[in-house]
Structures are given as C-alpha cells and as structure tokens.
Amino acid sequence: MTGLATLLVLADGRLPAGGHAHSGGLEAAVSSGRLRDLAGLSGFLRGRLATTGRITAAFAAAACVAARTVRAADADADADADAGHDDALDRHRLDALDEGLDARTPSPALRRASRVQGRALLRAGRAIWSVDPAQRDRHHPVALGIVAAAAGLPPAEAAVAGAYGTVSGPASAAVRLLGLDPYGVHSLLAELAGECDRLAALAAARAGDPIDLLPADSAPLLEIGAEVHANWEVRLFAS
Amino acid sequence: MRAQARIVAVADPVRGTRLAAMRGEPPLLPRRTFPSDSEGEVQLHLVGGAAGPLGGDDLRIEIEVGPDARLCVRSVAASLALPGPAGGQSRLHITARVAAGGRLRWLPEPLIGAAGCDHRTVTSIALAEGATLLWREELVCGRYAEPVGDVRIETTLRYGGRTLLRNDLAVGPRASGWSGPAVLDGARAVGSLLVVDPAWSDATSQEPTRCVWMAGPDDGSGRPDSAGGPTGVRRAAPEHSTAAVLPLAGGPAMLVNAVGADPRAVRARLDRLSVRRYVPERTARFRAIPIARVSPAASSATAGDAE
After folding, report:
1. d(CA A233, CA A205)
2. A208 CA: distance to closest CA in chain B (Å)
3. Is the confidence metric ipTM above 0.85 for this complex?
4. Domain containing A170: what range?
5. Is residue A234 part of a domain?
6. pLDDT tens, B221-246?
7. According to a count of CB atoms within 10 Å of the terminal CB, is the N or C end of chain A lower?
C-alpha cells in the first residue's frame, strides 16, 4: 500500500523533473509590471489555480485512472494471456487527454513548456518508478497522472499534486524574482491548500468524463504573457 | 424568456448564397442587411427585440452554413446581461455548423455583464474539413464604473471531428482571481477572434508563422504601428503586452486574444492583429478573406500597414 510519503516525493519541488526552471507565467507577469508585491502574487496564484490548476488537476486525475487501467491490464496480461482487452482503449484515452490539453492551450509557448516538463517528469518517473517506457512525449498533467499511477498513487492524489504544483512553482519563483518575504509567500500557499484539495476531489470525481466536458478555464494574460516571454532573448525561467 | 433563432445559408448559383431559413423570436430577431460589397456573402444583423439576456432566459441560436455558402452575422448593438426578476441564470447557446467550402463570419457587438448578472454563453462550433471561420467574442466587465456579475463563456471548436479549441472564460464574484495578474489584471474588456482557414493545411509548416504583438504605450488610438520587422514580431515596452496571435495545435486555426481597458481598445487590437501578415504570403486564400472589414474602423486603421 502506498502511503502519504510517496505523494510528498512526487509533489516535492526538489523532484529532479525540471520544475524549478519554470515560473508558470510569473516571470512574464513580473517583468510586465502586472505583479509587484505579495498582494499581486495572491491574485496571480488564485487566478492561476482557478484556471491552469483546475485543468491540471482534472487531467492528472483522468490520466491516472487511464494509466492505472493500462498497468492493471498489463499485469493481467503477464499472468494470463487472455486478459487486457481494454488496454488499447485506455492507451487511446491517454492520447485523447493529450489532445485535450492541446485544445486547452492556445499558446504555442505554453504547449512547448508543458511538453518539456511532461517529458522531464516521465524521464524522472522511469528512473524512480516503473513508468511505461513507451510514454515519452506527454503534456505535463498527463505525465503527472502516468507517473502517479506508476508510483501507486490514486487519481485524487495525482490531482492534488497537479493543483499544488501550479501554484508552488510560481510562488518560489516570486521569492527569487521579487525577493518577497518567504513566510508571506508560504502563507499564501497555505491559504490555497483547501482550494487545492477541493479541486482535486472534483477532478477525481469526474476523471472518467468525456474530454470535451473536462474543465477548460483559461487565463488570457497567462497565454499572452507566455508568447511575449518566449520572445525574450534573456530570461531567468524557461516559461 | 425562452427564445430560439435559426439561420440556414446555402449556396445559390446566381447570388452566391441565399437564406434557406431565417427564423427568430424576441429577443433574437435576425434581419437581412446589405453590405456594399457582398462577394456572394449573405449578411444579417441580430436585432435585440427585448432587454437582456435577463436571469432565467434561455436563448438558443442555431446557424448552418452549407457547402460553398458564405454567411456573416452581426448584431446592431452590444447585449447587456442583467439579473432577472426571479434570479436564476441566463443562458445563451450558440450552435454553428459549417460545411466544406462554406464560410461563416460571426461578428457581433460585445456582451456587457451588468452588476449582479449570472450569465453563461455556450458556443459550439463544428466545422467540416475545408470550412472557413471568423468568430469574434468580446466581453465587457460591467457598465461604466460598475462591478461585473458572474459571466461564463464556454467555447468549443471542432474541425473535421477533432476538437481544436476548448476555451472557457469566467469573470465575476464566483471566479477566483479573475481580475488578478494571471487572468485579466483589472482589464475591463477582453476579446478573442478565432480564425480557421483550410488554406493553412496546405502550408508547409503545421503551425502558421508565429507572431507576437505588443501595443505601444498609447495603444487604443487605432493608428497603425510604425515599427515592425519582416517576421511581424514587435518590440515595445513589455508593460503593454496586451494581445497575441496564438496558432492552435492540430489544425489550420488561430486564436487572437486581447485585453484592454475598454471594448474600443480590445476591438482595435483584434482588428489590427487580424490583418497582420502573420501568415506566409503563399497562403493567399487567407488574404482573400475580407478580414479587414471585421469592423468599419479597421480598414482605415490598417490601410497604411497592409503592404
């Protein structure tokens, strides 16, 4: 049985999956002058959690369900050659979730950033847990679901790692970029913990929904900012 | 109030396009109008036959464009979402289907969300492969100095059976962080222009040339940009980055996003970006779309910068 510590390992910002290189749109918001202080960061994190965070939680949970089924089918197939009939269906579901994220990410820069982080997470997952080596090029939320499944975590925990990751990354970037008070920044994260849990529970409850019905909340300035940011010659964060 | 409007445009050998159906009931009343240069396109305006949408309203618009038909739908004025007498949500469902070779331009005036409103627009666009689309959506957060109610806009675009875009936008008291720096940063207006052109499928690159446009400090004036490289990438003070062209994955489509202090600034940004040379010259079919006539102001604002 997998315990809470496994979730901590997966959600830890120190997991060598390249997350520290991304600011989740925070660098663009800071450089454009939209975000200057703790109050600005609070609004930024709330907006990001309600949009990107909600989508990430939903797709991580849905991918975790599909990846767990694939793994169970593979295990059955090892024991009994007749089993694994809906294996292909769930692999297809992972592809469809990936396309669903393409459709929810109009910004090419954000699509690239998501795939870069997804590939890095799958690479880490292969080294740490037994992630299917065929899964290489995925959007980050789908990769998170796949890795969580390999680590033995349930969909709700994949979702909570996803939701929390969308705010913890920019929060630590804000400390580095703006020199904000780390206690103040972590107070914001603690305030958002309940919302992360709520989004994760929703995500797990709707993990089997048709892809078009999964959340699609957008943040226009994250998309516009990402395109602007990708054109800079010098930047501290990859996105 | 429940109301339904249905518009069906089909190709006509003489006039280019004719209306096989044009029905409506208050507050959704379609009226045929006649642009000076129709190019075989039928144009109509939606006339608001009643206030609203008001809380409790259930409005439906169905649009069908047949093979090789061309339809443009506009509205005579902005619509104002208001709270209803008995509370409840107002809903507007728009369903559009365009056949191969057909073209739909949906260019209504903005939706204004009044204080206390609870409104939801659900748009579902299904394009056959080979269909062309220009779809504008603009939202204003409250009337003058008024806080916006809850407005939710949900958009799904399918092209040849594949979902190319799922994009929702929520503003108002129920939408956490919507006015913060990640979503609208206090901007009171936001808009998008969705462009689908099958000619892009023939281009060598899967994604059209990328372009980012950053407005100058006094943007919104409608004057043409003066600086610009051959790639279409603009350099300006980053604090004014308010619009971008976003080529979508998996199909010949792009989304133009803009935010601004008021609807005029948003319209100016959308208009200006939509006529940029963000596609390679070889995709001449896109240029044939009279996108410059998105709004009457656009043609003068962009004339100097067209070639």
Report:
1. 43
2. 18
3. yes
4. 4-8+20-229
5. no
6. 333 333 333 333 333 444 358 999 99
7. N
